[in-house]
Amino acid sequence: MSKMLLTYFYFLGLRTLTVIRDAEVMIQKQHPDFSMDAISYEDSAVFDMLNRGETQGVFQMESAGMTQAFVNLRGRSVEDIIAIISLYRPGPMESIPTYIANRHHPDQVKYKIPQLEHILNVTNGCIVYQEQVMQICRDLAGFSYGQADLVRRAMSKKKHEVMEQERQHFIFGSTEPGRECPGCLANGIPREAAEQIYDEMLSFASYAFNKAHAAAYAVVAYQTAYLKCHYPKEFMAALLTSVLDNTSKIIEYTGECHRMGIGLLAPDINESELGFTVQGDKIRFGLLALKNVGRALIEAVIEERKTGGKYKNLYNFCKRTHGMEMNRRALESMIKSGAFDCIEAKRRAMMQALEHILKSVEADAKKNLDGQLDLFAAFSETQAEEETSFEDYQIPDCTEYPAEVLLQQEKEVSGLYLSGHPLDRYRDTMAQMRSTPIAMLNAEDAHEYDNQEVTLFCTIVKMKTMSTRSGGTMAFLTVEDLTGSMEVLVFSGVLQRFGECVRDNAVAIIKGRFSFRENEGGKVVAEQIFDADQYLQTQGKDEGNKNPKNKLWLKLPSMKSEIFDDVRNLLSIFEGDMPVYFYFEDTGKKGCAPRNMWCVPSEILYSELERVLGKGNVIVQ
User: Fold this and answer.
1) Cα–Cα distance, 49 to 260 (Å, whole number)
2) Residue ranges of the OB domain (predicted)?
3) What is the pLDDT of residues 306-364, one digit of tens each?
4) What is the DSSP string of 224-272?
């Protein structure tokens, strides 16, 4: 279109904009004067939160790599967010360590030639934005604005022939009509320096943002961070509503709610709305997140509740919603989720009485439609009395489903365990083991953990088997822990050895190796699989006797060093119940860290700490 001299506009729709709007609406219910247009963009509490690595749900900053980059930068402004968003891309990413080092030590910034200083001093000596590429072309080689933009476009589109032609113009200049420019050599810039500068621009510009694009993203990132910092319940409710169709994300974000101390209330037919909402200091599960129920149906149910008052019991609900395309599957989903627990006693009793209630409601509807008594009522005065008083019908009592069945039913219809989690009773044990949070293996920078050994403490949600060419059987497992879900690949040899531990809904400990492929994402290749209870009674118990309390010892140069800040931020990301001990070389002092700096045992955490502190300075004992 540009060749036809036509202007075109590119509109990028972001789910996050809906999150911000929905959160704002919820906040205004308690604070009518609140407006996102009036927030401060220099709020120190927001940047303190980002510098603690608390970035889940923050636009563009959720990945562990982006989080750590901003933590290392110790950013204090929206300009810092703009820079990190621009740098955290293939190509420019290589400049992040230099950018951060130069930021903290401005006296060490070096420029290839003095003419670059006024262009790059605002970005700590690094090329960060496309506009800087254009300015270098103009100031060093004398390009016009149009010529400089041609270079930018050629680099971003990877047009190698044009890029090589522009290299010659950049270094030697051009006398071509309409393309006249002196070039770097004519402006007194050595050829070697000009070549290096052009190569640096070349490696950078193909993935670079223009600053306006990065600034727009940074504003949205800051707005989400502001909401999470000051209105966490409203923000997390809006965030959860935005991922209703993504169970893995719902698990991840409800886990973040747990970390933040925000409770999650189960669905409630008399309290829940379409999406997730704030109720008191907790978040109420949205009815639209349940399976087998549609938006139109839930909207009708909520509207009936507003006009006719709260539902009294299951029969009252079925009668009032008859004709709303309410079907048995939808009712069963709501029962299994616990949505009727507020008006009926036991889910098993509701499931057993459901058919009888539906038949009675249908009979009432036909009777009203025909304008006459039900055929059977003419012969049975007793039955007529029963039907007339069915509004007060009491569902027969019975024994409730076992707790594990209730949890599995909740998982079946909502994707989550709502009244608890099969792993809840293992929380202390998980904190003592070197288990890997699945959320870390689902992060955007998960490729960094490729080929690392991992240990998953998880539930087996689903199992799929297939035959191999050699006649064996292999399995694909979907597993889940308290932070997320992922796939585990079990080859035939491993399945043959540990097959008795591989079954649906089993709580398992899986040891293996993480494998990441660009087009497939990450999965764990299992090497050993254990039933969790059996493992803890045998190997786990023996290990516990040998080492009853795991401790993490970290050797640091000083408490006042920048390294200490890096370590503290890493520990905050892996917060857990494993005691952390410090030894400071400058004073010789040692001791246990505060409780809020204890961590979850994790091989990934240990490797990250070794990267910061060096091998031999991270010891688990």
Assistant:
1) 12
2) 464-529
3) 999 999 999 999 999 998 878 999 999 999 999 999 998 899 999 999 999 999 988 88
4) HHHHHHH-HHHHHHHHHHHTTT-HHHHHHHHHHHHHHT-EEEPP-TTT-
d(CA 65, CA 52): 14
Same domain, yes or no: 441 and 330: no
The residue with tokens 């990028």 is 12
Select from 616, 564, 559 the least CA-distant residue to 590: 559
The length of the chain in residues reads: 621
pTM (two decimals): 0.74
Tokens of 22: 């929905």
Q: pLDDT tens digit string along 389-442?
A: 455 567 888 999 998 899 999 999 998 889 888 998 888 788 777 788 888 888
498 with 432, same domain: the answer is yes
Q: List the one residue out of 454, 452, 453, 422 whose CA is nearest residue 435.
A: 454
Alpha-carbon distance 235 to 428, whole Å?
Answer: 29
Indicate the SS3 state at residue 509.
Answer: strand
SS3 at position 477: strand
Please provide the distance, in angstroms rounded to a whole number, between the alpha carbons at the two ends of the chain: 64
Question: How many domains in the chain?
Answer: 4
- Residue 126's contacts (CB-CB under 8 Å, 6 or more residues apart) are 87, 95, 98, 99, 102, 120
Residues 241 and 276 sit within 8 Å (Cβ to Cβ) = yes
Asked if residue 553 and residue 538 are part of one domain, the reply reads: no
* Domain end (from 543, 577, 607): 543
Vertex 288: Cα angle to 282 and 292 (nearest 5): 135
Asked if residues 88 and 248 have their Cβ atoms less than 8 Å apart, the reply is no
3-state secondary structure 586-620: CCCCEEECCHHHCECCCHHHHHHHHHHHCCCCEEE
Q: Are residues 303 and 349 in the same domain?
A: yes
* Distance between CA atoms of residues 74 and 53, nearest Å: 10
39 DSSP 8-state letter: -
Residues near 312 by beta carbon (within 8 Å), at least 6 away in sequence? 343, 391
The range of the structural domain enclosing residue 111 comes to 2-213
